[in-house]
Write a structure and sequence with these properties.
The structure is a single chain. The chain is mostly helical. It contains twelve helices and no strands.
């Protein structure tokens, strides 16, 4: 019991578990990794892990959050009323969005350990579950954009909205997963953004 209490009290235990989890998830994949193996790699007991994390899925989500949370913020910023208005008017949202996108891509370059986990676990059940959650959130952004841009009938078409959200999210992840400079990635992200925006705007009829 004393060892377990010491592990829980250690300021670095949580970080050690996340680092070990990132290595395991990148090497073996989420489905083949076990809590016991992760704890052994971190040099702690399973009790210490469950003190910080509810289960393996919670640990996975926390481990990739340094990239996924900024991605969610970036998606929300694209759906802001100001950006939507500029796109509808045919103007690029030069203020704020490119800077935010660049910071996000620089973060992805710094956190290749997280990107490696995302690439390794594309087809895992937990990754599919999380993509579903992100697609649902992005669908609401697209639905709002369609209403604002004068295509309310399309905003009510769940199949179209979810299809667009799926394309947008997967396109962003493809760009993020490439090993290229933030400048190259930003260029490709612009192409993706312009292509999707043009497609969405064409739905106004």
């Amino acid at each position: 019991m004393t060892r377990e209490r010491d592990e829980r009290a250690s300021a670095g235990t949580r970080e050690n578990l996340i680092r070990a989890a990132l290595r395991e998830f990148a090497t073996r994949g989420y489905d083949e990794s076990s809590v016991r193996e992760i704890c052994a790699a971190a040099g702690v007991t399973t009790g210490a892990l469950y003190f910080f994390f509810k289960n393996k899925e919670n640990l996975f989500r926390e481990a990739i959050s340094p990239v996924m949370e900024p991605l969610e913020d970036l998606i929300r910023s694209v759906g802001s009323d100001r950006v939507s208005k500029l796109v509808i008017e045919g103007r690029a949202p030069e203020e704020g969005l490119p800077a935010r996108a660049r910071r996000f891509l620089e973060l992805c370059e710094e956190r290749r350990d997280v990107i490696d986990v995302l690439k390794k676990n594309r087809t895992s059940a937990v990754a599919e579950k999380m993509r579903g959650e992100h697609i649902a959130a992005l669908s609401e952004t697209i639905r709002s954009f369609l209403r604002t841009s004068g295509a309310p009938e399309m905003a009510g078409d769940d199949l179209v909205v979810k299809w667009l959200a799926n394309i947008a999210l997967r396109s962003i992840l493809v760009v993020v997963e490439q090993e290229e400079s933030p400048e190259e990635a930003l260029k490709h992200l612009r192409i993706v953004s312009e292509f999707i925006s043009a497609g969405v705007l064409s739905l106004r009829g």
